[in-house]
Amino acid sequence: MSFENTTVLVVDDEPDLRTLYELTLLREGYRVFTAGSVQEARAQLQQRRFEILITDMRLPDGLGMELLQDLRRQSRSERAIVMTAYGSADNAVAALREGAFDYLTKPVDLKQFRQVVASASQGLQDAPAQAPSPAAFQAPAQPGTPPLPQDASQRELIGPSLVMQQVRERIAKVAGSMAPILVRGESGTGKELVAQSLHRRSQRASGPMVAVNCGAIPENLLEAEFFGARKGAYTGANQDRDGFFQAAHGGTLFLDEIGELPLAMQAKLLRAIQERKVRPLGAQQEEAVDVRIVSATHRDLAADVQAGRFRQDLYYRLNVIDIFIPPLRERREDLPALCEVLLERIAHESGQPVPQLGPEALQALAGHALPGNVRELENLLLRSVALSDGPFLHIEPARSGGPANAAVQSIAAEQTPAYLAPAAPRVAAEPPLPSALPAHGERFPLPQDLQAWLDAIERDILVRALQEFGFNRTAAANRLGISLRQIRYRMERLQIHDPSDGVQP
Protein backbone atom coordinates (compact mmCIF):
# COMPACT_ATOMS: atom_id res chain seq x y z
CA MET A 1 0.00 0.00 0.00
CA SER A 2 1.29 3.46 -0.94
CA PHE A 3 1.24 6.24 1.64
CA GLU A 4 2.91 8.87 -0.54
CA ASN A 5 -0.17 11.13 -0.61
CA THR A 6 -0.81 10.85 3.13
CA THR A 7 0.31 13.94 5.06
CA VAL A 8 1.21 13.58 8.73
CA LEU A 9 1.87 16.22 11.41
CA VAL A 10 4.10 14.96 14.26
CA VAL A 11 4.06 17.03 17.46
CA ASP A 12 6.71 16.30 20.13
CA ASP A 13 8.91 18.60 22.17
CA GLU A 14 11.92 16.22 22.21
CA PRO A 15 13.94 16.84 19.00
CA ASP A 16 15.52 13.37 18.96
CA LEU A 17 12.18 11.60 19.22
CA ARG A 18 10.59 13.95 16.71
CA THR A 19 13.36 13.15 14.23
CA LEU A 20 13.01 9.41 14.90
CA TYR A 21 9.26 9.48 14.21
CA GLU A 22 9.80 11.63 11.12
CA LEU A 23 12.44 9.31 9.62
CA THR A 24 10.34 6.23 10.39
CA LEU A 25 7.36 7.68 8.53
CA LEU A 26 9.43 9.04 5.65
CA ARG A 27 10.78 5.52 5.03
CA GLU A 28 7.16 4.34 4.74
CA GLY A 29 6.42 7.00 2.12
CA TYR A 30 4.43 9.54 4.15
CA ARG A 31 4.74 13.29 3.71
CA VAL A 32 5.78 14.45 7.20
CA PHE A 33 5.61 17.83 8.93
CA THR A 34 6.73 18.46 12.51
CA ALA A 35 6.07 20.80 15.43
CA GLY A 36 7.53 21.09 18.93
CA SER A 37 4.68 22.76 20.80
CA VAL A 38 0.93 23.36 20.82
CA GLN A 39 1.46 26.82 19.34
CA GLU A 40 3.64 25.52 16.48
CA ALA A 41 1.15 22.74 15.77
CA ARG A 42 -1.75 25.22 15.62
CA ALA A 43 0.22 27.34 13.18
CA GLN A 44 0.80 24.30 10.95
CA LEU A 45 -2.88 23.31 11.16
CA GLN A 46 -3.91 26.82 10.08
CA GLN A 47 -1.70 26.62 7.00
CA ARG A 48 -2.82 23.23 5.63
CA ARG A 49 -4.95 20.15 6.07
CA PHE A 50 -3.42 16.87 7.19
CA GLU A 51 -4.67 13.31 7.08
CA ILE A 52 -3.09 12.28 10.39
CA LEU A 53 -2.03 14.16 13.53
CA ILE A 54 0.39 12.43 15.94
CA THR A 55 0.93 14.33 19.17
CA ASP A 56 2.58 13.83 22.52
CA MET A 57 0.25 14.34 25.46
CA ARG A 58 2.51 16.71 27.43
CA LEU A 59 4.01 19.66 25.58
CA PRO A 60 5.89 22.73 26.88
CA ASP A 61 2.96 25.12 26.39
CA GLY A 62 0.01 22.84 26.97
CA LEU A 63 -1.47 19.42 26.31
CA GLY A 64 -1.89 17.48 23.11
CA MET A 65 -5.52 17.11 24.17
CA GLU A 66 -5.99 20.79 23.29
CA LEU A 67 -5.17 19.99 19.66
CA LEU A 68 -7.80 17.23 19.65
CA GLN A 69 -10.33 19.68 21.02
CA ASP A 70 -9.38 22.17 18.28
CA LEU A 71 -9.98 19.52 15.61
CA ARG A 72 -13.32 18.60 17.13
CA ARG A 73 -14.42 22.22 17.50
CA GLN A 74 -13.50 23.03 13.89
CA SER A 75 -15.04 19.76 12.55
CA ARG A 76 -11.75 18.85 10.89
CA SER A 77 -11.13 15.44 9.39
CA GLU A 78 -7.59 14.68 10.67
CA ARG A 79 -7.28 11.37 12.50
CA ALA A 80 -5.44 11.93 15.76
CA ILE A 81 -3.02 9.52 17.44
CA VAL A 82 -1.93 10.45 20.96
CA MET A 83 1.31 9.35 22.66
CA THR A 84 1.08 9.12 26.42
CA ALA A 85 3.45 8.03 29.18
CA TYR A 86 3.46 4.41 30.30
CA GLY A 87 0.76 3.72 32.84
CA SER A 88 -1.25 6.88 32.08
CA ALA A 89 -4.36 4.90 31.20
CA ASP A 90 -6.66 7.76 32.21
CA ASN A 91 -4.99 10.06 29.66
CA ALA A 92 -5.43 7.47 26.91
CA VAL A 93 -9.10 6.96 27.72
CA ALA A 94 -9.67 10.72 27.87
CA ALA A 95 -8.01 11.13 24.46
CA LEU A 96 -10.23 8.45 22.91
CA ARG A 97 -13.29 10.15 24.33
CA GLU A 98 -12.13 13.42 22.75
CA GLY A 99 -12.17 11.69 19.38
CA ALA A 100 -8.64 10.30 19.04
CA PHE A 101 -8.34 7.48 16.53
CA ASP A 102 -5.84 5.60 18.69
CA TYR A 103 -3.09 6.04 21.26
CA LEU A 104 0.46 4.82 21.81
CA THR A 105 2.26 4.25 25.12
CA LYS A 106 5.73 5.77 25.54
CA PRO A 107 8.40 4.60 25.10
CA VAL A 108 6.89 3.93 21.68
CA ASP A 109 7.56 0.62 19.96
CA LEU A 110 8.37 1.58 16.34
CA LYS A 111 6.76 -1.54 14.86
CA GLN A 112 3.55 -0.75 16.68
CA PHE A 113 3.96 2.91 15.72
CA ARG A 114 4.04 1.97 12.02
CA GLN A 115 1.04 -0.37 12.42
CA VAL A 116 -1.15 2.24 14.11
CA VAL A 117 -0.31 4.95 11.58
CA ALA A 118 -0.89 2.53 8.70
CA SER A 119 -4.23 1.54 10.20
CA ALA A 120 -5.29 5.18 10.39
CA SER A 121 -4.11 5.83 6.84
CA GLN A 122 -5.77 2.70 5.45
CA GLY A 123 -9.06 3.70 7.06
CA LEU A 124 -8.90 7.08 5.32
CA GLN A 125 -8.22 5.46 1.95
CA ASP A 126 -10.87 2.75 2.26
CA ALA A 127 -13.64 4.70 3.97
CA PRO A 128 -15.60 5.78 0.86
CA ALA A 129 -15.59 2.29 -0.62
CA GLN A 130 -16.57 0.55 2.59
CA ALA A 131 -19.29 2.83 3.86
CA PRO A 132 -22.58 0.93 3.67
CA SER A 133 -25.65 2.62 2.29
CA PRO A 134 -28.44 3.75 4.61
CA ALA A 135 -30.68 1.16 2.96
CA ALA A 136 -28.75 -1.54 4.79
CA PHE A 137 -30.54 -0.47 7.96
CA GLN A 138 -34.04 -0.63 6.50
CA ALA A 139 -36.60 -3.36 6.10
CA PRO A 140 -37.51 -4.51 2.57
CA ALA A 141 -40.21 -2.40 0.95
CA GLN A 142 -42.28 -5.30 -0.38
CA PRO A 143 -42.84 -8.89 0.74
CA GLY A 144 -41.48 -11.71 -1.38
CA THR A 145 -38.93 -14.49 -1.44
CA PRO A 146 -35.76 -12.97 -2.94
CA PRO A 147 -32.37 -14.39 -1.96
CA LEU A 148 -31.27 -12.96 1.36
CA PRO A 149 -28.38 -10.48 0.89
CA GLN A 150 -24.99 -11.14 2.44
CA ASP A 151 -25.60 -8.21 4.79
CA ALA A 152 -28.84 -9.74 6.13
CA SER A 153 -27.85 -9.56 9.78
CA GLN A 154 -27.34 -5.81 9.40
CA ARG A 155 -31.01 -5.43 8.44
CA GLU A 156 -32.08 -6.51 11.90
CA LEU A 157 -30.78 -3.18 13.23
CA ILE A 158 -33.98 -1.63 12.00
CA GLY A 159 -37.02 0.09 13.37
CA PRO A 160 -38.56 3.56 13.15
CA SER A 161 -38.34 4.22 16.90
CA LEU A 162 -36.29 7.21 18.03
CA VAL A 163 -34.09 5.05 20.26
CA MET A 164 -33.09 2.76 17.37
CA GLN A 165 -32.36 5.76 15.18
CA GLN A 166 -30.05 7.00 17.92
CA VAL A 167 -28.31 3.60 18.11
CA ARG A 168 -27.70 3.61 14.35
CA GLU A 169 -26.41 7.19 14.44
CA ARG A 170 -24.04 6.37 17.31
CA ILE A 171 -22.69 3.33 15.45
CA ALA A 172 -22.02 5.43 12.36
CA LYS A 173 -20.31 8.11 14.46
CA VAL A 174 -17.92 5.89 16.44
CA ALA A 175 -17.23 3.01 14.04
CA GLY A 176 -14.15 4.66 12.54
CA SER A 177 -12.38 5.10 15.89
CA MET A 178 -10.15 2.58 17.64
CA ALA A 179 -11.81 3.44 20.95
CA PRO A 180 -13.10 0.42 22.91
CA ILE A 181 -16.89 0.21 22.95
CA LEU A 182 -19.17 -1.32 25.58
CA VAL A 183 -22.58 -2.46 24.29
CA ARG A 184 -25.21 -2.78 27.02
CA GLY A 185 -28.63 -4.36 26.82
CA GLU A 186 -30.79 -7.23 27.94
CA SER A 187 -30.39 -10.71 26.51
CA GLY A 188 -31.82 -10.96 23.01
CA THR A 189 -31.69 -7.26 22.13
CA GLY A 190 -29.02 -7.69 19.44
CA LYS A 191 -25.72 -6.72 21.06
CA GLU A 192 -23.70 -8.89 18.66
CA LEU A 193 -25.47 -7.29 15.69
CA VAL A 194 -24.25 -3.91 16.93
CA ALA A 195 -20.70 -5.29 17.14
CA GLN A 196 -20.98 -6.65 13.59
CA SER A 197 -22.23 -3.30 12.35
CA LEU A 198 -19.35 -1.49 14.07
CA HIS A 199 -16.88 -3.85 12.40
CA ARG A 200 -18.42 -3.53 8.93
CA ARG A 201 -18.43 0.25 9.08
CA SER A 202 -14.86 0.52 10.38
CA GLN A 203 -11.55 0.65 8.51
CA ARG A 204 -11.04 -2.93 9.76
CA ALA A 205 -13.93 -4.34 7.72
CA SER A 206 -11.54 -6.35 5.53
CA GLY A 207 -9.99 -7.94 8.63
CA PRO A 208 -11.44 -10.71 10.81
CA MET A 209 -14.12 -10.30 13.42
CA VAL A 210 -13.82 -12.84 16.25
CA ALA A 211 -16.78 -13.19 18.62
CA VAL A 212 -16.17 -14.74 22.05
CA ASN A 213 -18.76 -15.72 24.65
CA CYS A 214 -16.79 -15.11 27.83
CA GLY A 215 -19.27 -17.05 29.94
CA ALA A 216 -19.00 -20.24 27.90
CA ILE A 217 -15.27 -20.95 28.37
CA PRO A 218 -14.11 -23.12 31.30
CA GLU A 219 -11.99 -21.06 33.69
CA ASN A 220 -8.94 -23.34 33.38
CA LEU A 221 -8.90 -22.80 29.58
CA LEU A 222 -9.39 -19.04 29.51
CA GLU A 223 -5.75 -18.00 29.19
CA ALA A 224 -4.98 -20.50 26.42
CA GLU A 225 -8.16 -19.58 24.53
CA PHE A 226 -7.49 -15.84 24.72
CA PHE A 227 -3.71 -15.73 24.26
CA GLY A 228 -2.86 -19.04 22.57
CA ALA A 229 -0.42 -21.76 23.63
CA ARG A 230 2.83 -23.31 22.47
CA LYS A 231 3.34 -27.00 21.84
CA GLY A 232 3.84 -28.84 25.15
CA ALA A 233 2.53 -25.96 27.29
CA TYR A 234 -0.01 -28.30 28.86
CA THR A 235 -1.20 -31.87 28.53
CA GLY A 236 -2.74 -32.32 25.10
CA ALA A 237 -1.02 -29.30 23.52
CA ASN A 238 0.43 -31.19 20.56
CA GLN A 239 1.06 -28.13 18.41
CA ASP A 240 1.22 -24.35 18.57
CA ARG A 241 -2.18 -22.70 18.51
CA ASP A 242 -3.32 -19.09 18.30
CA GLY A 243 -5.73 -17.50 20.74
CA PHE A 244 -8.59 -15.11 20.14
CA PHE A 245 -6.29 -12.07 20.11
CA GLN A 246 -4.05 -13.51 17.40
CA ALA A 247 -7.06 -14.68 15.37
CA ALA A 248 -8.54 -11.16 15.46
CA HIS A 249 -5.24 -9.43 14.51
CA GLY A 250 -6.00 -6.56 12.16
CA GLY A 251 -9.72 -6.77 12.94
CA THR A 252 -12.23 -6.68 15.78
CA LEU A 253 -12.42 -8.81 18.93
CA PHE A 254 -15.97 -8.98 20.30
CA LEU A 255 -16.10 -10.02 23.96
CA ASP A 256 -19.70 -10.96 24.70
CA GLU A 257 -20.85 -11.28 28.32
CA ILE A 258 -17.63 -9.65 29.53
CA GLY A 259 -19.04 -9.48 33.06
CA GLU A 260 -18.77 -13.26 33.39
CA LEU A 261 -14.95 -13.27 33.36
CA PRO A 262 -13.32 -14.17 36.71
CA LEU A 263 -11.20 -11.49 38.37
CA ALA A 264 -7.88 -13.23 37.67
CA MET A 265 -8.59 -13.27 33.95
CA GLN A 266 -9.79 -9.68 34.05
CA ALA A 267 -6.32 -8.57 35.19
CA LYS A 268 -4.63 -10.45 32.31
CA LEU A 269 -7.13 -9.08 29.80
CA LEU A 270 -6.50 -5.53 31.02
CA ARG A 271 -2.75 -5.90 30.49
CA ALA A 272 -3.24 -7.31 26.98
CA ILE A 273 -5.49 -4.39 26.04
CA GLN A 274 -3.13 -1.77 27.50
CA GLU A 275 0.10 -3.21 26.13
CA ARG A 276 -1.34 -4.61 22.87
CA LYS A 277 0.80 -7.64 23.47
CA VAL A 278 0.00 -11.19 24.57
CA ARG A 279 2.18 -14.02 25.77
CA PRO A 280 0.96 -17.48 24.71
CA LEU A 281 1.15 -20.20 27.33
CA GLY A 282 4.60 -21.76 27.25
CA ALA A 283 6.15 -18.87 25.26
CA GLN A 284 9.09 -16.76 26.41
CA GLN A 285 8.33 -13.70 24.29
CA GLU A 286 5.26 -11.52 23.96
CA GLU A 287 3.57 -11.05 20.59
CA ALA A 288 2.21 -7.71 19.36
CA VAL A 289 -1.49 -7.78 18.48
CA ASP A 290 -3.56 -5.15 16.69
CA VAL A 291 -7.24 -5.54 17.62
CA ARG A 292 -10.18 -3.25 18.22
CA ILE A 293 -12.10 -4.28 21.36
CA VAL A 294 -15.90 -4.30 21.44
CA SER A 295 -17.46 -5.83 24.56
CA ALA A 296 -21.03 -6.47 25.63
CA THR A 297 -22.94 -7.28 28.79
CA HIS A 298 -26.45 -7.60 30.15
CA ARG A 299 -25.17 -6.93 33.68
CA ASP A 300 -24.88 -3.66 35.59
CA LEU A 301 -21.07 -3.53 35.50
CA ALA A 302 -20.98 -0.33 37.56
CA ALA A 303 -22.74 -2.19 40.38
CA ASP A 304 -20.38 -5.16 39.89
CA VAL A 305 -17.42 -2.78 40.30
CA GLN A 306 -18.82 -1.51 43.59
CA ALA A 307 -19.44 -5.06 44.76
CA GLY A 308 -15.87 -6.08 43.88
CA ARG A 309 -16.93 -8.50 41.14
CA PHE A 310 -15.41 -6.49 38.29
CA ARG A 311 -12.15 -4.55 38.12
CA GLN A 312 -12.66 -0.80 38.06
CA ASP A 313 -9.63 -0.17 35.83
CA LEU A 314 -10.86 -2.70 33.26
CA TYR A 315 -14.36 -1.23 33.38
CA TYR A 316 -13.05 2.25 32.55
CA ARG A 317 -10.81 0.86 29.81
CA LEU A 318 -13.69 -1.01 28.13
CA ASN A 319 -16.34 1.67 28.64
CA VAL A 320 -14.70 4.46 26.65
CA ILE A 321 -17.78 4.65 24.41
CA ASP A 322 -21.13 3.29 25.55
CA ILE A 323 -23.97 2.02 23.34
CA PHE A 324 -27.23 1.08 25.08
CA ILE A 325 -29.86 -1.03 23.29
CA PRO A 326 -33.29 -0.61 24.88
CA PRO A 327 -35.47 -3.69 25.39
CA LEU A 328 -38.18 -4.44 22.86
CA ARG A 329 -40.97 -3.60 25.32
CA GLU A 330 -39.76 0.04 25.24
CA ARG A 331 -39.86 0.26 21.43
CA ARG A 332 -42.87 -1.77 20.37
CA GLU A 333 -43.39 0.50 17.39
CA ASP A 334 -40.47 -1.44 15.88
CA LEU A 335 -42.45 -4.70 15.89
CA PRO A 336 -43.90 -4.49 12.34
CA ALA A 337 -40.54 -3.78 10.72
CA LEU A 338 -38.77 -6.46 12.81
CA CYS A 339 -41.45 -9.03 11.99
CA GLU A 340 -41.16 -8.30 8.28
CA VAL A 341 -37.42 -8.91 8.27
CA LEU A 342 -37.58 -11.99 10.52
CA LEU A 343 -40.40 -13.56 8.49
CA GLU A 344 -38.47 -13.01 5.27
CA ARG A 345 -35.46 -14.78 6.77
CA ILE A 346 -37.60 -17.65 8.08
CA ALA A 347 -39.17 -18.04 4.64
CA HIS A 348 -35.77 -17.98 2.96
CA GLU A 349 -34.41 -20.69 5.25
CA SER A 350 -37.50 -22.89 4.87
CA GLY A 351 -37.93 -22.32 1.12
CA GLN A 352 -41.54 -21.22 1.62
CA PRO A 353 -43.37 -18.02 0.61
CA VAL A 354 -43.22 -15.17 3.09
CA PRO A 355 -46.32 -15.45 5.33
CA GLN A 356 -48.44 -12.33 5.61
CA LEU A 357 -48.71 -10.63 8.98
CA GLY A 358 -52.29 -9.42 9.28
CA PRO A 359 -53.72 -6.92 11.77
CA GLU A 360 -55.02 -9.66 14.08
CA ALA A 361 -51.58 -11.24 14.30
CA LEU A 362 -50.00 -7.83 14.89
CA GLN A 363 -52.42 -7.12 17.73
CA ALA A 364 -51.71 -10.53 19.24
CA LEU A 365 -47.98 -9.79 19.11
CA ALA A 366 -48.56 -6.48 20.87
CA GLY A 367 -50.04 -8.40 23.78
CA HIS A 368 -46.88 -10.44 24.37
CA ALA A 369 -44.44 -9.13 26.97
CA LEU A 370 -41.45 -10.55 25.02
CA PRO A 371 -38.99 -10.55 27.95
CA GLY A 372 -36.52 -12.36 25.65
CA ASN A 373 -36.67 -9.40 23.23
CA VAL A 374 -35.90 -9.95 19.52
CA ARG A 375 -34.66 -13.50 20.13
CA GLU A 376 -38.00 -14.43 21.73
CA LEU A 377 -39.87 -12.63 18.94
CA GLU A 378 -38.04 -14.74 16.36
CA ASN A 379 -38.85 -17.95 18.25
CA LEU A 380 -42.51 -16.92 18.46
CA LEU A 381 -42.64 -16.27 14.71
CA LEU A 382 -40.89 -19.57 13.95
CA ARG A 383 -43.48 -21.46 15.99
CA SER A 384 -46.34 -19.53 14.40
CA VAL A 385 -45.08 -20.19 10.86
CA ALA A 386 -44.88 -23.92 11.62
CA LEU A 387 -48.41 -24.04 13.06
CA SER A 388 -50.20 -21.65 10.68
CA ASP A 389 -52.27 -22.79 7.69
CA GLY A 390 -52.77 -20.61 4.66
CA PRO A 391 -51.05 -17.38 3.60
CA PHE A 392 -51.86 -15.45 6.80
CA LEU A 393 -49.85 -15.90 9.96
CA HIS A 394 -51.70 -16.82 13.13
CA ILE A 395 -50.18 -15.65 16.42
CA GLU A 396 -51.35 -17.23 19.64
CA PRO A 397 -52.46 -14.55 22.13
CA ALA A 398 -50.42 -14.14 25.29
CA ARG A 399 -51.66 -16.59 27.92
CA SER A 400 -51.84 -14.02 30.68
CA GLY A 401 -52.88 -11.15 28.45
CA GLY A 402 -50.60 -8.16 28.09
CA PRO A 403 -50.53 -4.44 27.53
CA ALA A 404 -51.28 -4.08 23.84
CA ASN A 405 -49.17 -1.25 22.50
CA ALA A 406 -51.11 1.69 21.06
CA ALA A 407 -48.53 2.35 18.34
CA VAL A 408 -48.74 -1.22 17.04
CA GLN A 409 -52.55 -1.28 17.22
CA SER A 410 -52.79 2.01 15.33
CA ILE A 411 -50.53 0.63 12.57
CA ALA A 412 -52.72 -2.47 12.32
CA ALA A 413 -55.84 -0.33 12.16
CA GLU A 414 -54.41 1.80 9.33
CA GLN A 415 -53.67 -1.32 7.27
CA THR A 416 -57.23 -2.68 7.54
CA PRO A 417 -60.59 -1.29 6.30
CA ALA A 418 -62.92 -0.42 9.16
CA TYR A 419 -65.47 -3.06 8.22
CA LEU A 420 -62.79 -5.79 8.35
CA ALA A 421 -61.08 -4.64 11.54
CA PRO A 422 -61.47 -7.16 14.37
CA ALA A 423 -63.04 -6.11 17.63
CA ALA A 424 -60.54 -4.70 20.10
CA PRO A 425 -59.35 -7.41 22.49
CA ARG A 426 -60.52 -7.16 26.04
CA VAL A 427 -57.39 -6.64 28.11
CA ALA A 428 -57.52 -6.36 31.88
CA ALA A 429 -56.28 -3.03 33.18
CA GLU A 430 -52.78 -2.98 34.68
CA PRO A 431 -52.81 -2.60 38.49
CA PRO A 432 -52.09 1.00 39.50
CA LEU A 433 -48.73 1.88 40.96
CA PRO A 434 -48.80 1.46 44.75
CA SER A 435 -48.54 4.69 46.73
CA ALA A 436 -47.09 2.79 49.71
CA LEU A 437 -46.07 -0.69 50.72
CA PRO A 438 -49.05 -2.90 51.61
CA ALA A 439 -49.96 -3.37 55.26
CA HIS A 440 -49.34 -6.70 56.91
CA GLY A 441 -51.56 -9.34 55.38
CA GLU A 442 -52.36 -7.27 52.27
CA ARG A 443 -51.02 -7.94 48.79
CA PHE A 444 -50.37 -6.05 45.58
CA PRO A 445 -52.65 -6.98 42.66
CA LEU A 446 -50.73 -9.31 40.33
CA PRO A 447 -49.43 -7.42 37.26
CA GLN A 448 -49.72 -8.82 33.74
CA ASP A 449 -46.24 -7.65 32.73
CA LEU A 450 -44.03 -7.85 35.81
CA GLN A 451 -40.94 -6.22 34.32
CA ALA A 452 -42.88 -3.29 32.83
CA TRP A 453 -44.68 -2.79 36.17
CA LEU A 454 -41.42 -2.84 38.15
CA ASP A 455 -39.83 -0.44 35.65
CA ALA A 456 -42.76 1.93 36.08
CA ILE A 457 -42.39 1.83 39.87
CA GLU A 458 -38.63 2.41 39.67
CA ARG A 459 -39.09 5.26 37.21
CA ASP A 460 -41.69 6.93 39.42
CA ILE A 461 -39.37 6.74 42.46
CA LEU A 462 -36.38 8.10 40.55
CA VAL A 463 -38.34 11.00 39.02
CA ARG A 464 -39.75 11.97 42.43
CA ALA A 465 -36.30 11.89 44.03
CA LEU A 466 -34.75 13.90 41.20
CA GLN A 467 -37.52 16.49 41.29
CA GLU A 468 -37.16 16.80 45.07
CA PHE A 469 -33.48 17.76 44.65
CA GLY A 470 -33.85 19.87 41.50
CA PHE A 471 -32.38 17.07 39.35
CA ASN A 472 -29.16 17.07 41.36
CA ARG A 473 -28.20 13.46 40.61
CA THR A 474 -25.66 13.18 43.40
CA ALA A 475 -28.17 14.32 46.04
CA ALA A 476 -30.92 12.10 44.63
CA ALA A 477 -28.57 9.09 44.57
CA ASN A 478 -27.57 9.71 48.21
CA ARG A 479 -31.23 9.98 49.20
CA LEU A 480 -31.97 6.61 47.56
CA GLY A 481 -28.82 4.90 48.84
CA ILE A 482 -27.31 4.22 45.42
CA SER A 483 -24.18 5.45 43.65
CA LEU A 484 -24.00 8.24 41.10
CA ARG A 485 -23.08 5.71 38.40
CA GLN A 486 -26.11 3.60 39.29
CA ILE A 487 -28.54 6.50 39.07
CA ARG A 488 -27.06 7.53 35.72
CA TYR A 489 -27.43 3.98 34.41
CA ARG A 490 -31.04 3.78 35.63
CA MET A 491 -31.92 7.18 34.17
CA GLU A 492 -30.59 6.08 30.79
CA ARG A 493 -32.32 2.70 30.93
CA LEU A 494 -35.66 4.21 31.95
CA GLN A 495 -35.38 7.20 29.58
CA ILE A 496 -35.42 9.85 32.36
CA HIS A 497 -34.12 13.19 31.10
CA ASP A 498 -33.12 16.37 32.92
CA PRO A 499 -35.64 19.14 32.00
CA SER A 500 -32.69 21.51 31.47
CA ASP A 501 -31.80 19.38 28.43
CA GLY A 502 -35.11 20.38 26.87
CA VAL A 503 -36.77 16.96 27.35
CA GLN A 504 -39.34 16.37 30.03
CA PRO A 505 -39.03 13.19 32.15
Automatic annotation (TrEMBL):
Signal peptide: none annotated. Pfam families: AAA_lid_14, HTH_8, Response_reg, Sigma54_activat. The modification 4-aspartylphosphate is found at residue 56. Residues 124-151 are annotated as: Disordered. The keyword Transport does not apply. Residues 7-121 form the Response regulatory domain. Keywords: ATP-binding, Nucleotide-binding, Phosphoprotein, Transcription, Transcription regulation. InterPro entries: AAA+_ATPase (IPR003593), AAA_lid_NorR (IPR058031), CheY-like_superfamily (IPR011006), Homeodomain-like_sf (IPR009057), HTH_Fis (IPR002197), P-loop_NTPase (IPR027417), Sig_transdc_resp-reg_receiver (IPR001789), Sigma_54_int (IPR002078). Residues 125-142 have a biased composition (Low complexity). The keyword Cell cycle does not apply. Residues 157-386 form the Sigma-54 factor interaction domain. This is Sigma-54-dependent transcriptional regulator. The lineage of its organism: Bacteria, Pseudomonadati, Pseudomonadota, Betaproteobacteria, Burkholderiales.
